[in-house]
Amino acid sequence: MKVLILHQHFNTPQKGGALRSYYLAKALVDQGIDTIVITGSNSTQQYVEQVDGIEVHYLPIAYENRFGFYKRSFSFLKYIFQSVSLAGKFKDIDVCYAISVPLTIGLAALWIRSRFGIRYIFEVGDLWPDAPIQIGVIKNYFFKQFLYSLERTIYQQADSVVALSPMIKDAIEKRAPGKKVHLIPNMADTDFYFPEIKDTRLEEKYSVQGKFVVSYIGAVGYANGLDYFLECARNAQKASLPIHFFLCGEGGMASRLQQSARKIQLNNFTFVPFTNRDGVRELMNITDASFICYKPLPVLETGSPNKYFDGLAAGKLIVVNFGGWIKEEIEQRGCGIYSDPKYPTDFTKKIQPYIYDAALLQQAQQKSRSLAEEKYSRKKLGKLFTGIFGEKI
């Protein structure tokens, strides 16, 4: 069997960033399935690499998190045309696996199906076009209706759809009644991240000896609402709590957040540039609580953020500032807390028991790791994923 994966933002462990598509491709390769990936890169030339048995084709299509709406849209459209053109050069492809975001990846899958007769499975990580509409990026009524129509068509023409969260699965089933929808969340790499005793050398390196460390590790974009994270740091500083905050990542809001931190004179906050997963694991070692932050929009409660699963695998207390299925899960499992975004002081109130009661913190952290192993381990979800392709043989 041969599978073609379309994902414009394919990352490798060496590069860093979200690794879901790498994990999925590796799971296929480990089952003896020939796997080709078409992705984009900031290179000026097209090139091919073999990555752990995965044949990865890089198209010269620039993209960065700091791009605005129109520049992103141009990059997305460019990927459609070039990926479809390249797909026609491969022979004996059995199934195309198209990974959104963005929704426009579905156009490439539809085109490949029409031109080359290759069936496709469509993965939905975020509900588009709901996300850009609720954020306010897309306002034109007719364009909204066009995108909703496109969304339904992509679902209906797919062999099946993969949803990354229960809420996304429910939404797709309502929009495409009768369509087979698989639930395969993001994965916790329990073989790479795991609970560790804090390394005193790292505590010294980051100047956090004797501190309770709260880290946000991920995208630094508008949707992440990280002004709230700064407000939590500000209130913790006012309350003289022994907490240090780390923000690690890249994105369009990074510079502004750094300026804001300097303006309000935070001395309990450190910005760490984007790093690969070895760098993330180093930061995770000194972290007590993993913070996951979004703006208060309903659509952002439906997602499946990588940082949640990394935090679980590393055995960290989880802190969220949004509702939805993750809030419900961490409260049910006793591995995290919800900090109300309407009240920045809510964080300082709810985190204090974990600062001053080591046994309580350890209990929550152990529950995080147990959840990762039981429900989200890379091996378990990889097996579930490859099983979808077994149905297609």
In a nutshell, what does this entry contain?
The protein is an alpha/beta fold.
Give an overview in words.
- The protein has 393 residues and is α/β, with parallel strands linked by helices.
- The chain folds into two domains: 200 residues, Rossmann fold; 176 residues, Glycogen Phosphorylase B (Rossmann fold, 3-Layer(aba) Sandwich), CATH 3.40.50.
- 44% of the residues lie in helices and 18% in strands.
- Helix 2 runs parallel beside helix 3 and helix 3 crosses helix 5.
- The termini are close together.
Topology:
Blueprint lengths: L1 E5 L13 H11 L3 E8 L5 E5 L2 E7 L8 H19 L7 E5 L5 H12 L2 E6 L5 H6 L5 H17 L2 E4 L2 H10 L5 E3 L16 H6 L6 E6 L9 H12 L4 E6 L5 H10 L5 E4 L4 H9 L3 E4 L13 H8 L3 E4 L4 H9 L2 E3 L6 H12 L1 H18 L2 H13 L3
Parallel strand pairs: 1-2, 1-5, 2-4, 5-6, 6-7, 7-8, 9-10, 9-12, 10-11, 12-13, 13-14
Antiparallel strand pairs: 3-4
Helix pairs in contact: 1-15, 2-3, 3-5, 11-14, 13-14
